[in-house]
Design goal:
This protein has 385 residues and is mostly helical. Helix content is 74%, strand content 6%. It has 2 domains: 138 residues, 3-Layer(aba) Sandwich (Glutaredoxin); 241 residues, no CATH class. α5 runs parallel beside α11. The chain starts with a helix and ends with a helix.
Amino acid sequence: MLSSRFQNHQLLLILLLCLVFCCFLHAREVSVEYFYQPNCQECREVNQLILPEIREELKGKFTFTEYDLSQEKNFLLLFSILEKFHDESNAHVYMVVNRKYLLGGSKAIQNNLREVIQSEYEAVRTDSASGKDSNAIVLPDEKKLKEKIRLGTVIAAGFLDGINPCVFITLIFFMSILSAAKVTRKRLALIGMIYISACFLTYLLLGLGLYQLLSFAFYLETLKQILNYGMVVILLFLAGLSFRDACRFLHSQNSNDISLQLPQGIKNIIHSLIRRLRRNAFMIPGIFSFWGPAVTLLESVCTGQVYVPTIMLLIRENGILTSWFFYLILYNLVFILPLCGIFLLVLSGISVLSLASASRKQVVLSKILLTIFFLLLAFLLLYFQ
């Protein structure tokens, strides 16, 4: 009887030790959480090309949990993780390793997942301190590079859009009307600030609308691919036209030879609006509420050649919380810098005719820069897809 009880106790003790040992082993495994969307091209790449190799190579070194993002609870879980990491990427697939590493997109997963799992496994197995904060945000090198490229692209795009001949010609015409009206210097400064503020807010709101519209379209995988490759083709076409414009204008010095400019009908409407503004004695409320926004929206037919593809680039690399809004504000601040410069020059006494002459001399340079930038945007849309 005692022997039987002793054997039972031994058996329970062995089972308990086994359980503890299994928990110990489990605790020493690396935890990988996989968040995916059904019918997602990137997810299929991860499932078919990336995961099988990693599972075979690192077998027994990590536990794997899948989360279907079409289920609300899984989406909310991912959202909370993204908030913790302050991550605002717009990827369709994510890997989270030990709640310390966040990899978004198939390229980041392919380039970093194997190394991250192996690193975490070695750190746990050797029971050595890795020297990293467990709550630290670990960004892959590729993502850091994208952040730098995105910032530089937004600044360059805003500046090139600001020196676009479409904007310059309209502004110089506006300034000529102001000069002819013999507006006082103080009132000229006030009109300039109001007009530029109206341009800034209108262009920003236009960008917000385009961002929301395109973001919705990008949630549909097929439509996203169509838009992306379609924009690449359009950018290559615009690059060709811009380069041709530079060559034509260099030889003829005739603005009628330029293809990428405001249609004559829209120019006439803008000139009519500005003349009507003069007849209304340059009323400040009207400049801010009607004339400024109307002129900016009409100009967007031309300036949108840079604005729209830049917004598409932001959507591909951003999209959940606030960072994309910061980039839109930055774009528009850089966009109005040349406008501010022209108003300051006029206030300092530079004649409008001198500015018009200087702007004509910069047409070829601006067209060459736009050509390079269109090609760069096309490359970035392909590289970051």
